[in-house]
Amino acid sequence: MPVFSDDSSSDWEDPDCVPRPVVTLGAVGREMDSRKERDFHQHRKGQFLLWMRGVLTCEVDGGFWLVPPGSAIWVPGGTQHRMDGAGTVDCYVVYVDPAVGDALPRECCTLSTTPLLRELVIRSAALPMRYEEGGMASRVMTLLLDEMALAQPGQVHLPLTTDKRLRKLVEWIMARPSDPGNIESWAQRMGISARTLSRLVSRETGMSFGRWRRQLHILLALQWMARGATVQHVAEGLGYENASNFVVMFRKILGETPGRYLKSNA
């Protein structure tokens, strides 16, 4: 799970080694030490991370996800990934043995959550890691698995690539998200033609340049709003002429206004 600044308890046990099909750990009001999670690593068991406060980012080969408060991410066992976050967080991590995770997604993805799913995760975190099998605890975990399998994939995902040119472009856009440059100006900075950049983005991400850039803006917007930024400030930070234009873009991508989206995921 993500590493926290005070993870030094002597009774802590590696969930990968606990002989239970499902194990949940919780961390409420804890300081996340992102420096310890920046290297790629993997776990034998799959991880379902429910983020209740703070913002988490997760990168796997070919993809970048942002997990806003109230949402979750699924990382299948054996998947090389790295996580990043900072500050005080409330989160829960459900470890799922591959032997019982057949109904869960085969690839990394964000997942929407329901009140029932969130409460089951919180309840399961109160159980001992080596809970007694065959009783109520096992039934809670079985129901939790069923609810996790019903969770719908989210859309807060930015396809990434190993292409060094696109990696550099991501760094440029994130450093100056309000830059109004179009595909022609970005291509010029990269020393290639706009047509080449368009084909490169399409081939590597499956998106048009415009859609891919808007998706990156969505990730940044959710990150800023989760930290308390207003819609007006986010719109200005992303270079929109006014908040209304930003709201239109947000609703086009996620199907809801920023306010409704944050409320539904609270």
UniProtKB/TrEMBL annotation:
This protein's UniProt keywords: DNA-binding, Transcription, Transcription regulation
Residue ranges of every copy of the HTH araC/xylS-type domain listed in the record: 167-264
PROSITE patterns, alphabetized: HTH_ARAC_FAMILY_2
PANTHER family for the chain: HTH-TYPE TRANSCRIPTIONAL REGULATOR NIMR (PTHR11019:SF199)
Domain of life from the UniProt record: Bacteria
Family annotation (Gene3D superfamilies): Homeodomain-like (1.10.10.60), Jelly Rolls (2.60.120.10)
Record's protein name: Helix-turn-helix transcriptional regulator
